[in-house]
Design goal:
It is a single chain. This protein starts with a helix and ends in a 13-residue tail after the last strand. Helix content is 28%, strand content 40%. The protein is an alpha+beta fold and 159 residues long. The chain has one domain: Roll (Nuclear Transport Factor 2, Chain: A). The protein is globular.
């Protein structure tokens, strides 16, 4: 493995870990800053993804749309307060094309309610395209493919 490939692997792993940490710490405004503009963020179930559908449960095509989502979470949406704890599996660098790293990584997310009740909320994988051409890596595309075709109605916070 070359030094360049090691640096890319380290950089994309750090970006993926930082994204999970910001969501888990309820720093959603900061989470949105990890995306390029334009970008694509999509949460979709496995069957819909395998069928080639391009729309899912949550979708954004720009950083502004991500920030709008955060604004509605903070000011408009009504849902029982909760938070997540992500565990990210082995990050797999699938290739690099024209300054973009193609990366896949499995995840699990536990949901912690205000009562302290903790449940396994979601499992799946991230299919990421990451701009590695500049000094700070940014997501250009993050597709969150959920393992289950049944989605909890309390999916308000990005995964």
């Amino acid at each position: 493995m070359s030094a360049d490939e090691q640096a890319i692997r380290h950089g994309v792993s750090e970006l993926i870990a930082e994204a999970a940490e910001r969501i888990d710490a309820d720093r959603l405004e900061d989470w949105a800053e990890l995306f390029a503009d334009p970008c694509r963020y999509l949460i979709i179930d496995r069957m819909a993804h395998e069928a080639g559908m391009r729309q899912g449960i949550m979708y954004a095509a720009t950083k502004g749309m991500l920030l709008d989502r955060v604004f509605t979470i903070r000011n408009a949406n009504l849902f029982e307060p909760h938070r997540y704890r992500h565990v990210i599996g082995q990050v797999r660098l699938k290739g690099v094309e024209d300054g973009t790293a193609i990366v896949h990584s499995p995840f699990i997310a536990a949901r912690i309610m205000q009562t302290g009740e903790t449940t396994l909320f979601a499992t799946g994988r991230y299919l990421d395209r990451i701009d590695i051409s500049g000094p700070e890596y940014r997501f250009t595309e993050r597709i969150v493919v959920l393992d289950s075709d049944r989605i909890d109605t309390l999916l308000a916070i990005p995964l």
